């Protein structure tokens, strides 16, 4: 599964593997480290994504769009 993460420094969006969750990763654009939240922090959103047949987006507040 892939997740969409937004760099808080340069505001660019990146598709990351779910393995990046709960880790600090470098932004491919600005090279600054930022923390990707745990999937468990967004349990309801993850359930919705698993039921979804299309792409979904979760913002930093756990709101799901898709």
- What is the 3D form? globular
N-to-C SSE series?
A: EEEEHEE
Radius of gyration based on Cα positions: 12 Å
Level of helix content?
10-25%
Ranges with pLDDT <50 over ≥5 residues?
none
The pLDDT mean sits at 81
**Spatial order of the strands in the main sheet?**
1-2
Structural class: alpha+beta
Distance between the termini: 15 Å
- Strand content bin: 25-35%
Q: Specify the biggest β-sheet.
A: 2 strands, antiparallel
Count the beta strands. 6
> What is the total number of structural domains?
1
Helix segment tally: 1
What's the SSE blueprint?
Layout: E1 2-6, E2 13-17, E3 23-26, E4 33-36, H1 43-51, E5 57-58, E6 64-65
Antiparallel strand pairs: 1-2, 3-4, 5-6
Write a compact overview of the structure shown:
Helix content is 14%, strand content 33%.
């Amino acid at each position: 599964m892939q997740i969409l993460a937004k760099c808080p420094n340069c505001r660019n969006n990146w598709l990351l593997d779910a393995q990046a969750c709960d880790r600090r990763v470098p932004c491919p654009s600005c090279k600054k480290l930022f923390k990707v939240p745990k999937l468990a922090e967004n349990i309801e959103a993850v359930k919705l994504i698993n039921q979804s047949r299309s792409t979904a987006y979760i913002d930093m507040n756990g709101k799901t769009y898709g």
